[in-house]
């Protein structure tokens, strides 16, 4: 009944104010749950931290990057992207748990905007992801990452990462809506965190990958986001040719825009029409 009592007053305002109040109420509930379960925050920061330690410190002399730049600077964009990928699983599990536990049924019985529940979930998880990104940025500075294109370049790069994190959160929402099995969600989310970075230029330049794998890595959205962030920060980047390497901003905008549109629209449609 606590969750219901928190959301019910949100139905009183009208129009845009009503939507803002309802989304804020759902996001606040989600943040309070995350505060009582800090393991989720640890989960989204642990993988990037391990990557920077293992690749950036232990194996840095064994890894070749284009040019003569710092590998710690090259690596940082790939490690920061893992914050978004690691957020897919916790979001999916939270959505699936709400569906299986009956909480979503209670939300649907209230006179609130249907989309407020899922949007509130994503806003709360975005705030947690941004906090995790701040932790990774602080650690990156400690191990040698630096930006060289001024404050606007720094802010633009982190803005791209924030957009990527939000798109991955909606991917987690869709995964949670499609599968109620926590074991299945855990397996899929683990593959996302592990496989996507290694099939991209997150840790290694795509030009050093086998020829048959190179096109996959070059067109991977993770590669486009990482290349764009490196360009904005003035960090070493890939020298491989091709449209994705030469126009990472265009590829990032198109792929993330399509993913956001598909995942959000399909998730909201399933939420409105499914009989839970």
UniProtKB/TrEMBL annotation:
It is a multi-pass membrane protein. InterPro entries: ABC2_TM (IPR013525), ABC2_TM_bact-type (IPR047817), ABC_2_transport (IPR000412), Nod_factor_ABC_transporter (IPR051784). The chain crosses the membrane at residues 39-59, 74-96, 117-145, 151-176, 188-206, 249-268. Residues 39-271 form the ABC transmembrane type-2 domain. Belongs to the ABC-2 integral membrane protein family. PANTHER family: NODULATION PROTEIN J. This is Transport permease protein.
